[in-house]
Amino acid sequence: MTLEAIDLMTPLVSVTAAWDLIALFIAVFPANIHQALHSIPIEGIPHHPILHWDRLPFEAVLIIWIW
């Protein structure tokens, strides 16, 4: 389990951890678009362009879930 996940479960820091994770998802989104546009392989994910594009909307789902 990551430190962020533990922080989300700790009442004293859960709000700050949630905002930090939302900021992280927003900050890395342009890099994920670049990766999808240029079909850059990611270790551990099968190299298929459709998979790179399909994972982009899930970032919005994760942001909403964290919110």
E-strand count: 0
Rounded Rg = 14 Å
Query: Could you name the ranges where pLDDT drops below 50 across 5 or more consecutive residues?
Result: none
DSSP strand content: under 5%
Q: Report the structural category.
A: mainly alpha
Q: Helix content range of the residues, please?
A: over 70%
Termini gap: 20 Å
Q: Report the average pLDDT across residues.
A: 85
What is the overall silhouette? elongated
Q: What is the count of helical runs?
A: 4
Reading the helices and strands in chain order gives HHHH
Largest sheet, in brief, is: none
Task: Explain the overall architecture.
The protein is mainly alpha-helical. Helix content is 70%, strand content 0%. It has helices at 3-8, 14-37, 49-54, 56-66. 3% of the residues are buried.
Q: Could you give the topology of this structure?
A:
Blueprint: H1 3-8, H2 14-37, H3 49-54, H4 56-66
Features:
single chain; mainly alpha
Structure, briefly:
By secondary structure, the chain is mainly α.
